[in-house]
Amino acid sequence: MSKIIVILKFIFHFSVIFLVILSLFSGSLIGLLLYGDIGKQPDLIPNPFGTAINHFIYYFYLSLLGFSIYLKDRIFKKVVYALFFLSILLELLHFIIPNRSFQLTDLISNILGVTVAYFIIKIYLFFKSNEKI
Questions:
Q1: Burial 75-90 (b: 16+ CB within 10 A, else e)
Q2: Residue 125 carries which DSSP code?
């Protein structure tokens, strides 16, 4: 396995762990680090949906990275299912985590990020299989 794939797999797995920690932390860990306020959620891009765009961006990044790394691997389908499951589970856990609240827009953004990344990979595979040599 090439060094670049090893590094990308490390980044992917580290990103998953980082996502789980951010999602399960009681409050805003990034708000605490950036503003010194555990109750303040940072907006990467100001928008009318609040932090939902942050969810889309992170899940899109994570999914595109994971799908690209494991594209030719036998566990590709497991990665797809795991990311869909993770996107739903982490948001549903906000029902029981103190100082967190379930947001339907966040759940939709999570799933949409994974779905868009999946379709980009599928479109790439479609064009790659149809190119002339």
A1: eeeebbeebbebbeeb
A2: H
Q: How far is CA 2 from CA 5, 17, 69, 76, 106, in A?
A: 5, 23, 12, 18, 36
Other CB atoms within a 10 A radius of the CB of residue 121 amount to: 18
Confidence check: pLDDT of 25 > 70: yes
Amino acid at 53: I
The residue assigned the tokens 């950036």 is 34
Q: What per-residue confidence (pLDDT) applies to 123?
A: 94
| 58 Cβ contact list (under 8 Å, min separation 6) | 19, 113
Report the pLDDT averaged over residues 113-133. Answer: 89
Residue 5: helix, strand or coil by DSSP? helix
Q: On the CB side of 40, how many CA atoms lie within 13 Å of its CA?
A: 10
Instruction: Give the angle subtended at the CA of 40 by the CAs of 38 and 83, to the nearest 5°.
Output: 85
* Whole-number average pLDDT of the chain: 87
